[in-house]
Amino acid sequence: MFDRAGIALHSRMVAAKVDNPPSADVLRYFLEIIANTAGVILLSLGIGLCTSHFAETVFVLAAFATIRFISGGYHLKASWACVIISTFIVSVIPFVIVSDLLNYIITAGSLTAMLVWAPANYDYYARISKRYYPLMKTLACAVVALNFVIVSDVLAITYIVQAALLCIFGGERT
After folding, report:
1. pTM (whole model) above 0.90
2. Which of 74, 89, 117, 154 could form a disulfide with 170 if both were Cys (CB 3.0 to 4.6 A apart)?
3. How many helices, marked H, and strands, marked E, lie in the chain?
4. Contact between residue 113 and residue 147 where contact means Cβ atoms under 8 Å apart
5. Which residue spans traverse the membrane (predicted)?
6. Four-CA torsion 6, 42, 142, 170, nearest 10 degrees
């Protein structure tokens, strides 16, 4: 489906004499990313609405997108698997409640993982210069450390999930 759409979009750009249009493969990849992101957001928000956890789901989506952008991480090869797993994770997090002590422990674990592995896998999925990696690591650590002040269950669980994705699935030491 996205192959045909990428080819069609590329052909239209060439016909419209767009200067240096992206290849059909690049356009296909872009369309897959948009569909994947929209799928996770819409499904998660729908589940959040149905379970009366809409605001918490929005918060999880924002927190996860932020920490994921800053710290990188593993990407699944199949878009459909990413949509299903991401939607499941985002939809479950609002239901997890932890004590303040456990919140601090989870946050400390997440911070440790960010110190060791963030940013991870940017060489494969983004074009961010390695000179920015120390800044990204610092930002990831600062964002996670902020939960020592906020003490949010949602943030603690979101950050530990991202930390697990960094260290279990292809985290790279930078």
Report:
1. no
2. 74
3. 9, 0
4. no
5. 33-66, 78-98, 104-126, 138-171
6. -50
Question: Over its length of 174 residues, how does the chain's per-residue pLDDT go in tens digits?
Answer: 777 877 777 788 878 888 888 888 888 888 888 999 999 999 999 999 999 999 999 999 999 999 999 998 877 888 889 999 999 999 999 999 999 999 999 999 999 999 999 998 776 666 788 899 999 999 999 999 999 999 999 999 999 999 998 887 554 443
DSSP secondary structure of 84-137: HHHHHHHHHGGG----HHHHHHHHHHHHHHHHHH-SBSHHHH----GGGHHHHH
Report CA torsion sign: 164, 165, 169, 170: negative
Distance of CA 24 to the CA centre of its chain: 25
